[in-house]
UniProtKB/TrEMBL annotation:
SUPFAM superfamilies tied to this protein: S-adenosyl-L-methionine-dependent methyltransferases
Matching PROSITE patterns: SAM_MT_TRM5_TYW2 (PS51684)
Protein name (Swiss-Prot/TrEMBL): Class I SAM-dependent methyltransferase family protein
Origin species: Natronomonas salsuginis
Keyword vocabulary terms for this entry: Cytoplasm, Methyltransferase, S-adenosyl-L-methionine, Transferase, tRNA processing
Gene Ontology terms for molecular function: tRNA methyltransferase activity
Domain SAM-dependent methyltransferase TRM5/TYW2-type: 82-328
PANTHER family listed in its UniProt record: TRNA (GUANINE(37)-N1)-METHYLTRANSFERASE, TRNA METHYLTRANSFERASE
InterPro entries reported for this sequence: MeTrfase_TRM5/TYW2, SAM-dependent_MTases_sf, TRM5-TYW2-like_MTfase, TRM5/TYW2-like_N, Trm5a/b_N
GO term, biological process aspect, one: tRNA N1-guanine methylation
Length: 329
């Protein structure tokens, strides 16, 4: 059966394989194939293509199965849908019996999984956490690896989406050494830690005390604690950073507009703002751009440098990012 794989020049194969391993996107179920100077590297069925470098070519190809391993589809007779976060496998099934059948097959297979969970609620509350049904295993804490960084977290206590890996990487690639980088809703540090690894001076703020503790641990785990200031609290009450930021991240897409006045206070004379929003696909960028201009003008000139669709969020709704440059007049 055809499987998704990355097609590339043979000489680039090992580098690409390593990159796929870093984001848990390499399939262990199928063999890597080399044909006429091209290499075909199979993707894990749970991998989100957006967690892979968008410049890579993803194709479908019939590849040979590895004979020495057992996978969930071998047990179930169909390919289940799941995603992986560290050594936790996440399924999303409305029927409890189906979820447990899939979990049993995952745990009986050779998929690297310590725990299997099913989503038991939407993201809820001010701290944006979700309830889970633990279907197998006994823990919701894990270590997720992404673009050379490691993030320790507990999915029952913090919000984290591995599907946003490529988007985070897109932003981080713009960060310059010594830059003043401020994440207003930092979580466990998926923006802050890699920014600090690029030698930026970073501040991460979050209302969730558990997320802040993991951010401290992750800064230490990745060797950047000396470049990260971790602050627990509502970013609107933080003092001492007015006019400090040269880059601001606002990844709170349902309500970031409520914090734009604070963002303008934090912005320095020349500041890049990464503003995340969820809007109807009829006008995904207009409301956010209007909100940014309303908050920043006339004190700042506002230039929207990038209007970027991150992913589909729901029918007719898009998760988008506006990259804005604010220059003080």
């Amino acid at each position: 059966m055809p499987v998704r794989c990355v097609r590339a020049a043979r000489e680039d194969g090992e580098e690409i394989r390593q990159r796929l391993v870093e984001v848990d996107a390499l399939s262990a179920e199928y063999e890597i194939e080399v044909v006429d100077g091209e290499i075909y590297i199979p993707l894990d069925p749970a991998a989100d293509p957006r967690s892979i470098d968008p410049d890579l070519e993803v194709v479908e190809r019939d590849l040979a199965r590895r004979q020495s391993q057992t996978f969930p589809a071998d047990i179930l007779g169909f390919e289940p849908s799941y995603e992986r976060l560290g050594d936790i496998v996440i399924v999303d099934e409305d029927d409890d019996a189906t979820a447990r059948t899939i979990a049993d097959a995952i745990l009986a297979s050779d998929v690297r999984a310590r725990t299997v969970v099913n989503r038991a609620s939407p993201i809820e509350g001010e701290l944006r956490v979700r309830r889970w049904d633990v279907l197998g295993g006994n823990g919701t804490e894990t270590v997720h690896r992404e673009y050379g960084c490691e993030f320790e977290l507990d999915i029952s206590e913090v919000y984290f989406s591995p599907r946003l890996a490529t988007e985070r990487h897109r932003v981080i690639e713009q960060v310059a050494p010594e830059e003043h980088f401020f994440d207003m809703f930092a979580g466990v540090g998926p923006f802050v830690v890699p920014a600090a690894k690029r030698d930026a001076e970073c501040v991460g703020v979050d209302l969730n005390a558990a997320a802040i503790e993991y951010l401290r641990r992750n800064a230490e785990r990745n060797g950047v604690a000396d470049r990260v200031n971790v602050i627990h609290g509502d970013v609107r009450s933080i003092t001492g950073y007015d006019g400090w930021a040269e880059r601001l991240v606002m990844n709170l897409p349902h309500s970031a507009d409520e914090f734009l006045d604070t963002a303008v206070e934090l912005a320095g004379d020349d500041c890049r703002l990464h503003y995340y929003d969820i809007q109807h696909d009829a006008d995904p960028f207009g409301p956010g751009e209007a909100a940014i201009r309303d908050a920043a003008e006339p004190d700042y000139d506002v230039e929207i440098e990038t209007r970027h669709e991150v992913r589909s969020y729901a029918p007719h709704e898009l998760n988008v990012c506006l990259d804005a440059r604010l220059r003080q007049r």
